[in-house]
Amino acid sequence: MKSNPTQQRIDYGNRRWAILATVLTGSLVGTFGNSMSNVALPSIMEHYGIGLNAGVWIVTIYILLFSTLMPVFGRLGDMFGYKRIYLIGMIGLVASSAMGAVAPNIGWMIFWRAVAGLCNAPTLPAIMAIIAEVFPPEQRGGALGFWATANGAGHGFGPVISGLLVQYFGWQSVFWFNAWLTLLGVVLIWLVVPTDHKHTRERFDLVGAATLTAAMIMIMFNLSEGLQGTFSPAATVALWLACAGLFAFFIVSQLRASQPFVNLRLFANSGYGVVTFVSAAQLFCLFGLQLLLPQFLINVQGRTSGNAGLLIAPLAVSLAFISPAAGRLSDKIGSRFTCLVGMGTVALIGLGFSLWTAGTSPWLIAGMLTLLGTGMGMTQSPTANAVTLVIDKTQLGVALGIFNMLRFVSGTLGATIFGAVLERGGTSALPAFRADFWLLAAVAGLAALLALKMPTAPRRLVTAGVVNVPVAGD
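Below the sequence we write its predicted structure tokens.
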């Protein structure tokens, strides 16, 4: 899976930082689209007179579609240009956000949220691919660190902005805010980001794209509904068998296709597999903790929602703060060391969490969450950096789409499993929380061990004249 050594890289000079700042507007918009809607949900449910069972689809349909469709739009970016696909998605986000603000009933609201999720799917693969195109390997980690910071800022400030907008201007203002911010992003991307003049005569493998997407949607659906006991055991088994059948059909179709949607040799690339697992483990822990921590602070320690939010904030702040430095460090020494230290720290802090009680000091909690966020920041941008170094540039978009899709599936799995353990053990029972914290430590510890197989430093690869090759275990 080696790149063509004759490919010439354009030197964008200092302009590359303006390009980075511009493409990151999409990351903010995409994160806001999720984090802001959570806060607005109670007001939306009241407006339409619906219960939680219907209202939750306003959030879940968005996550479901944008996470599972990333490989499709990543492949389209490989074929027709990342900027072009990115702009089409952003324009769709403008329209769907505006239409969501004026949706006449809950059915139309859910429909426009589904369209928004679909239109957000090109964002992550396009951002990471554009950064990989614009920045040389020895500077890529620092650039992806700022992507992680923008992502963390969206998660951290989205609920705050949304709360103020809903309080003073109504829930519709959340969607109008996102629409105008997205429109600004469209203009800036059009003017600043260079056009990648791609046009291919390759056919788009519709069968492969459809079967992979359907299989991943079914996995996400099974994880969010099946593990919560929504279905009977027989129905749950049938759903998982159907999922396995779709995957089998996908693999057979890719082996037979002359121009497959995914070159299956990608999954034989040990470097890609290790990087993806470590990154997926980080999101497994993060999404699980986002569910777990408020429950512990409110139900076990008896804190208010506002106080719990303030105590949890150091996790997001430290993750966002450390990510650029961790990315730059991975440029110099490689991702192996940063991810080993990062996930090792998460594992140790997870074991420390298991010692928490109803009387644990808020200062100790905030300090441990700061260390936990630092460990996750030491992992997030270095894994994003590493994955761009171990894949062929001809499949950069689809490989990044699969990488990010698997990260979000893992995050969903983390939240689902942590929630299931908590539901069965009791949302105020310390043994249930300890079981989840031990699970977090085990997953993070395994990721730390696998980080020893992460790629070497980009500078060493550049010196050797080799870029975008599998170097795991070197």
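The longest helix spans residues 15-48.
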